[in-house]
Specification:
4 strands; 3 helices; alpha/beta; globular
Length: 112
């Protein structure tokens, strides 16, 4: 039987923020902390984040946990070096084990 942690408060959610631009990343981190989301990790590119997701996946697969006990949400910038947000989202959503992770894509690009 798979064990899944109960999330009862924002501080219990496990988030990964992926944003390459330090000023935007710092602003999002400040907003998340102010809103009570204290359990998050930030990455500057999709590749580093994906490697951490794969590491967590290996640990979780070896236990009775589900992925959402270790990772609830990915907030991903669309344009980044090494691996862009769309590719990261696709890789996560195509993996049956990771399909329950919520993904939010965002962009700071403005078209005029």
């Amino acid at each position: 039987m798979a064990v899944e942690a109960q999330v009862t408060h924002r501080s219990d959610l496990r988030l990964f923020l992926v944003e390459d631009f330090s000023l935007i990343r710092a602003g999002i981190e400040k907003v998340l902390k102010g809103a009570g989301y204290g359990n998050f990790h930030s990455y500057v590119n999709g590749e580093d984040c994906y490697q951490e997701i794969l590491r967590i996946k290996q640990e979780v697969e070896a236990s009775e946990e589900r992925i959402r006990s270790r990772l609830n949400l990915l907030a991903i910038d669309i344009e980044m070096p090494k691996m862009d947000g769309l590719t990261l989202c696709k890789m996560v959503k195509e993996d049956p084990f990771l399909k329950d992770v919520i993904v939010v894509l965002f962009s700071s690009l403005i078209n005029g």
